[in-house]
Amino acid sequence: MVLKRRAMYQAVTAACLTGLIPLVAQGQTGDESKKSAQGLEVIVVTAQKREQSIQTVPLALAVIDGDEILDRGIFSSNDIQRLAPGLSGQQSGFSRPRWFIRGIGSNDPNLTTESPLGVYNDEVFTALTSLQSFPIFDLERVEVLRGPQGTLWGKNTTAGAVNYISRKPDFETSGYVRASAGDWGSKGLQGGLGGAINESTAGRISFFHQSYDGYAKNLLTGKDGPAFEENALRVQLLTNVTDNFTALFNVHFLKSEPGANYAYQVHSEAGGADRYGFTPDYGTNPKAGDAYYAGESDNVTDTEGALVKLDWSLGDYTLTSISAYDESVNTSKSFSGNQPTFVGERDNTSTWGETDSKQISQEIRLVSPQTSALSWIAGLHYFRYTFAQDAASATFSPSSRSNYTRTWRDQDSESFAAFGSIKYEFTEKFRLNAGLRWTEEEKDINIHTVRTPTGSTTFNNVSSWWQLSALDTPFNYNQNVFENRSWRELTGDITPEYQITDETLLYFRYARGYRSGGFGSTIPTLNAQQIAAGVAPYIPVVEPEFLDSWELGSKSTFLDGALNVNATVFYYDHKDIQLNVQAPNPLNLINPPSGSFAQNASQGEVTGFELETQWQITDNLRLNAAWSLVDAEYVDFYPILSVSGVTGVVDRSGNKYFRTPKHQVTLDLEYRIPLDGGSNIILSTDWVYRSHQYYDAARQGLAQGEVARDVNGVVHQYGWQEQGGYWLGNTRAAWQTADEKIEYFVEVKNLADENYVVNATAASPSYPVSLGQPRFVQAGVTVKF
């Protein structure tokens, strides 16, 4: 049996290396085509827009199988960070994930922000970072590409790309249902069913539901929170129009209703008291699950879209067209109120907002066969997205702080790209890959902001206070500003690779990527000196950032295909970095002169090393392990900081990249225990270690709780904007029937109940600190058919 597996592994690998046969049809799940010697899977990816074994792709990437995602109870787009080495997607409550790979990412939550990491659903780019948190279900796999993607992928990015690939319709009937329940009143139900509709058409329908009541008591409402609910549906049809022409249709819907995006307020007065004398029970050291204080909120996002993928076989060539349209509508309201131990006259505030977004994309590419020494890919890509946001905020009491602000934002972004990649096989062992991408982008934005004078604002209808008709006070600020920018850029990569042996590939990759420019989300408030100098209201513009990457990697297979060992050494030259610089507001001003805004304030250098192994130790024991070492430092970092109205340039050169632990370790272990009668007990656990990291680029170096004063004597407690090293682990136990159709399971997330900070913002005058979720236990059953 071992000899048979070994022969099959060698034959499949050799065929893939020479390009003589396609490895596996996309979506095929048969064990005969995926198992190698000792049972290690031959993983098929499309990271380079054609089917290849992961061990033959000269690129640092990770793949998470869809069945593994299902088995481990991974339901959120960012939660794949559990199994993807070097990826971080930390999330504050239910806000968008803060994606980081090798130190490259963004902490900016504004809609105008261009993400440095490309998030794709079935090869379709998701433009708005606010929509990059979504449920994942009935997937074939997820591919995580590390390093700049400036050639083949739909949007030029500096960090990398994550592609979520749905399970496609098949002409054989298959499906599954997974039901679970657990802590916090949680309920989960998902499933998929597909098969032939007629001789030429197959379909698949997939659904998802997840909800829970929350794990901490909201002292204002008396309810547990933050509550959460998501419902999603995906319907696909695959039809063979002719013998050489297939069409895939995909329509999808999502409704997300997150509760209040709570944060623990860590106040700056002695013992953690606020300026009114109120001290929360947790004092200065909150833990996830502690009772908290937050107002009520309503937040609903409806997303829907459609995709059409057409494939023509033109002889040995393949022409592919991917057309997609997506839109979303978000409505939100939040209300504050007074804390339970009311002392003094507190702020009574509310916010309201509506956001509509739309995006359309079209890609056409032609792929040559891999049967000759020269192979290539060429294509065109068009992308456009727009959003319109209407947002208001108001303070009703105390009367001395009463105010009203409303802002309308409209942005239109359009890009066009032409790309091509070639690969030439000089000898059986030496090959050269090279690619170029020409991108043209244009963006325009209009921001209109109105305000009433602080301390003299009154309302004639508080129930609909956000409407202009509800005001009894005229505006003292009314600015409408338009801005437009366009950029053109040539990027690409070149990768020589050398097949040392049939089991070892060595490659060098140079790649250049860029992150599109953009705009600030607000019209800055001008100070007296600027007004006197005749400075006109403006919208800040952020120019593109660039990243040049040099990478040396190897991919090796040992033990007759039972062990894969991949290693990478890389260096980044990072220029014109778009950084979200936080400006504290210790005086709690209504309209501070500045806030959190993006600046091209720094250059940077990143060096790193990555080591990954996948080892099928025995037929029943599998281990995946990875270690990444990243040393990332800002160079020539001179951000503009504004504190209490005093604005100036400061030197922060030498600071470490934020949200970038120097060490990250990933461990994933699964052990199967065969029982009499053919059933199995399956035990699995996965752990991630992240060393110390900062959450702010400009303010670093103080221990948690330590205070410092700036040149104006203002106290800052920067220590909350960092997190020490910690392990985060999950475990699972399951009993599987002999036919592998039914599986009963118990899962525990955050097994050690680790308390850790995922985000903290500058004092205003309190630190809003967001913590990771506490331990979560659930049980359920999965039925496959």
Automatic annotation (TrEMBL):
Main location: membrane
Membrane topology: Multi-pass membrane protein
Xref: CDD domains: ligand_gated_channel
Domain of life (superkingdom): Bacteria
One Pfam family cited in the UniProt record for this chain: TonB_dep_Rec_b-barrel
Coiled-coil region list: none
Signal peptide feature range: 1-27
Start and end residues of each TonB-dependent receptor-like beta-barrel domain: 272-751
Keyword Nucleotidyltransferase recorded: no
GO-annotated cellular components: cell outer membrane
Location within or outside the cell: Cell outer membrane
Annotated keywords: Cell outer membrane, Ion transport, Iron, Iron transport, Membrane, Receptor, Signal, TonB box, Transmembrane, Transmembrane beta strand, Transport
Any single biological process term in GO: iron ion transport
InterPro entries: Beta-barrel_TonB, Beta-barrel_TonB_sf, Plug_dom, TonB-dep_rcpt-like
Segments of this protein annotated with the region Disordered: 336-355
Domain TonB-dependent receptor plug: 54-161
Record-stated family: Belongs to the TonB-dependent receptor family.
Name of the featured protein: TonB-dependent receptor
Organism: Cellvibrio polysaccharolyticus
Organism lineage: Bacteria, Pseudomonadati, Pseudomonadota, Gammaproteobacteria, Cellvibrionales
